[in-house]
Amino acid sequence: MEKWKEFEASATNFLNDYFSEFTFENLGESDSTAPDIKVYTKEGKLLTQIEAKYSPSQAGQIVVLIKNNQFEFSTKSKNPKVASTAILIDHLNKNYETYSDVAQSAIPIQIDDSVLFSFIIEQYRLKGNDWIIASSQSLSLCANNLCLIPLSELPQYFEISASLRRKRSGTSSLAKSMREKAEEIISKLFNNYEIKVEGKKTFFHGDIGTHPKELPENLYLSPKGENIYEIRKRSTTNNVNIMFSLKLKENYEFKSEDFLKFLESKVN
Length: 268
Hints:
By secondary structure, the protein is α+β, with helices and mostly antiparallel strands. It contains seven helices and 16 strands.
């Protein structure tokens, strides 16, 4: 399990024990636009939502286009356009020569932290979050190694940064029309393997040793278990992204009393 998933599950369990008069639900999603932890009364009334961050971590992203030597906001962005989005893109355009040669390597965006925090806080609030819980540990969580604060205090307890880089889009399940080609490619690279089709997914069963998971024709072997890989197709899209990152500072707080008062105000 990825560390961030471990953290979200562990943090949810801890909150359920610590604030036992309420119910905390971990949604367990990788969708960055969805809330991480929902908080309910024992009767099932939704009170608030919490953003969970395993530190350091990505905190959001904006897809931008380059047209006529200008950066533009792209509707492909998962994070919607807000006031600080325009400020960021205006900064890129005013310093176009610095940022225009963007590639896979990240170019740090030199802009006031207040603009970046404004973007992140607004995005988290749009998701319905009022608080954030974070730690640099994923397991064995306690009040001493957890940060629990309202979103408004994010600048006090976190370091923030943003960078510009090209980012490949993700992968998709192998299309039926590509299976024969995939088998042909794999037959030239590996011995003693088996290919199985389960529903819409195609799996490679075998030991790939030290061979890269990236294969010709933008194919990719996605690990699913010991010597089991799903054969997936990489997208050729190579978008320019503004990537945001958060890192927890050392002197953080677990504001249990403030959080409890906040929940009680939502109940009444």
